[in-house]
Amino acid sequence: MMQKTLYSKLWDSHLVRESDDGHALLYIDRHLVHEVTSPQAFDGLRLHGRAVWRPDSIIAMPDHNTPTTGWEHGIADDLSREQVNTLDRNVRDSGVLAYFPFGDKAQGILHVVAPELGATLPGMTIVCGDSHTSTHGAFAALAFGIGTSEVEHVLATQTLEMKRERTMEVRLDGTPRAGVTAKDLALSLIGEIGAAGAVGYAIEFSGSAVSAMSMEARMTLCNMAIEAGARTGLIAFDDVTLQYLKGRPYAPTGRQWDAAVTQWRLLRSDPNSQFDRTVSIDAAAIRPQVTWGTSPDMVVSIEETVPDPINERDPQRRQSLERALAYMGLHPKTALIGLAVDQVFIGSCTNARLEDLRAAAAVVRGLRVSPAVKRAIVVPGSGAVRRAAEAEGLDAIFLEAGFEWRRPGCSMCLAMNGDQLMPGERCASTSNRNFEGRQGLGGRSHLMSPSMAAAAAIEGRLVDIGAWGR
Question: Which of 152, 253, 270, 396 is least enclosed by beta carbons within 10 angstroms?
Fold first, then answer.
């Protein structure tokens, strides 16, 4: 029998048909819908007189445009309010499986909430009009982002037209040193292979460092696969996955649970299965990572300096580095340790789970945010995360330290909801993208782990969390 990778198993089990030129039709199990990429899709259905084919496959909620303060006053921005209201109308008319409207106790970021509910299950194909749908691949699910026209196609047919991707195994072996997290490992990978290094590939993360990770850390790893150019990231099913899912509201129960687990245990690459490319990383050698430029692959270890474009042989790459330095207001060979920050953001679908907030709270406990920091905010990824954090007293730790404790949502990860940087402001951010203007026009974003961002808030500057003394 042919040895198969996890990607091949998921692909083959959902393949409806495949033509000789490689174009295929794939069945979709779970459709996640939010307010930004769905309005035109629903309009398209109405225009052609079509109904949603499988409303029981849909989990919907607003997250990008929702504010993280003043919920009692509603949504102030006219465009944001209209997008959220449009989602309300569209999904309520369609009879979807679950809808969590703005202000609902469960509302938050789709990529945080769906796994919490057990709506993300091993063996599924999962799509959403959002590139960071790759997050759900941590559950041995084939999950990826789609465009608005594809959202309409899935709503109408429960299928998607696409091509099979090549496979890349990323082996992370060894025990990470103190202060090094899944975020650091992801950024290190992106720095090594580049932001386009995995274009056309599905990444499967494996190795002893991955096996030792919690589900929260695995979600962070798969979330960032997209920043390496991959459309999806995958991690094999194991007992860590099992324990996370057991008892979740949308997970199977009783005999169905037992039968599901039997099938889920097959969701791993077979021994000696062949990948198109393998990248091996010694997790023990990685230091805490910080981006310095305007792409996630413009990243170095915290103890390093900003690179000098003069050393880059590729003229296009050199020009890109020079532009990034100009935008970020940095000079070649600038030390990252000690670089002053204006704002600190702890949140996003990458790092807004309970484990992330615990790590940040452990850093700031009993300390105060530097007077040099204009604003430091903590935004839980969901209502459930917020309540759990408050039950543990994490909100009190952050508030006493001088952080703002916000309502859940995408928040400052992207400049769509009022949580924004001002031009020229520098931010220590736990989000996933540092593009020009991503967090606000002219804003300068440095990506890092929650503990690194928390320490930056206390010091008012970037520090090496691995060597930082409280």
Answer: 253
Q: How many CA atoms lie within 13 A of 399 on its CB side?
A: 8
User: Is the dihedral angle over the CA atoms 462, 432, 223, 386 positive or is it negative?
Assistant: positive
Q: What is the mean pLDDT of residues 68-96?
A: 94
Angle of CA points 446, 451, 454, to nearest 5°: 70
Beta bridge partners of 377: 345, 404
The pLDDT, as a whole number, for residue 175 is 97
Q: How far apart are CA 173 and CA 212, in angstroms?
A: 10
Would the pLDDT of 105 be above 90? yes
Taking all residues of the chain, what is their mean pLDDT, rounded to a whole number? 97
Provide the pLDDT for residue 1. Answer: 65
- Among left, alpha and beta (phi > 0; psi -120 to 50; other), residue 366 is left
Residue 469 above 90 pLDDT?
A: no
Its pTM stands at 0.97
